[in-house]
Amino acid sequence: MKNSAPFIKLLLSGGLLAASGCGLYDVTPCPAGPAPVAPVVSAPTPPPPAPIAPVEKTVLISKPITITGINFKTGSAQLMGTDIAVLDKVAAFAKMHPDATLDINGYCSKTGSYAYNYKLSKARAGSVAGYLENRGVAADRMTVKGHSYEDPIASNKTPEGRFKNQRVEINSSVMLRSTVK
């Protein structure tokens, strides 16, 4: 065992190392200092949710329109000069709203028979429709009705009241776009 001395030395030094807790093949760390601590990584905080925008939608709303201010002399279906400005506005309205239909309603004061006033009230509505047609409003967009002396808006006992009742009213509905939340 001549050559056994280095082996014994190696064996003894390995035993000393093993006794100290450190070894060549030992899995436990050497007691050189405190074991390193891995840093704690926290998960990132998610951003707050975006605010919810109000829901908007566009709807069509029907808006009724009544046009007044078209009056006639007793027994006449002829338009007066003051009616022209009103009817020009109606024609402009009809051009701006090509889907709108116009209900043209003629009325009379209560002078004369119902039948006479019915015919006159229809002629008054027709006079208005003819004017509007000459201004570019299509005839198929207009409905003409006579109402005789029904639905007075003033007393038939005074000249002023009768003049107010000798009228044409134009009714229409337009569809307007509106945004709602």
Automatic annotation (TrEMBL):
Location in or out of the cell: Cell outer membrane
Domain of life from the UniProt record: Bacteria
Annotated ranges, domain OmpA-like: 59-176
Entry GO terms, CC: cell outer membrane
InterPro entries, alphabetized: Bact_OuterMem_StrucFunc, OMP_bac, OmpA-like, OmpA-like_sf
Signal peptide: 1-18
Gene3D superfamilies: OmpA-like domain (3.30.1330.60)
Pfam families on file: OmpA (PF00691)
Keywords recorded for this protein, A-Z: Cell outer membrane, Membrane, Signal
The name this protein goes by in its record: OmpA-like domain-containing protein
Native source species: Acidithiobacillus marinus
